[in-house]
Please model this.
Amino acid sequence: MRLEAIPVRLGEWRQDAREAVRDTVPIAMGYVPLGATYGLVLVNAGLAWYWATLSSLVIFAGAMQFLSVALLASGAPLAEVATTALLVNLRHIFYGLSFPLRRIEGPLRRLYGVFALTDETYSVVTARTGEELTGRRIHLIQVFSHGWWVLGSTLGAAASTALPGQVHGIEFALTALFVVLAMEQLYKGGNARSTGYGAVAAAVAWLAAPGQFLSVALGVLLAAAVGQWWLASRKPTEQEGGF
Model:
């Protein structure tokens, strides 16, 4: 690279960085308080505060990080932890099909792009369908989002060390979040079937294998989703055949 091109490249990076920070402000409003809750839950489970920072740096899986604390604290076998992680994060395979990863330059940045793909960064990036985001800006959106989550986790874990005792009930925060999201989807209409699938999956898991509740419930829910897709895919064929 010629020396005269360096100021131009730095100016482009600064511009993309400013825009990426602005893009991630809504993400920060959710990541910082939720990450702080994760830090509190982790310390309440008996782990040292710095594990919140390390796990957020290395795992960065949001809901799965909350679940991992409960699974590890209960002594769950590694196979159950791995199966749960696969089922919880299976949706990211479909995210990757429409995420503009090809715009990100460099194998290391692309590898990080796969690692740092979350629900929120996917929404922010793909929502700008009419705006041609540069690879740098996409990369920085993911970096800053990751940073917000690490910041929240660290603040929550550090703050918990100053509390006089354990904070009871804070582990319900993630459950409450998903309940609110489910209610919001119901209010919007058209999602009652998915909610019904979730209720049936929870009931089956609770009755059949309460000790493996999460794995069984996710398995039943995945089977229901596959079954619905299969039935929907057969309808045009049946109509063409005169049924």
Notes: The CA atoms of residues 84 and 215 lie 6 Å apart.
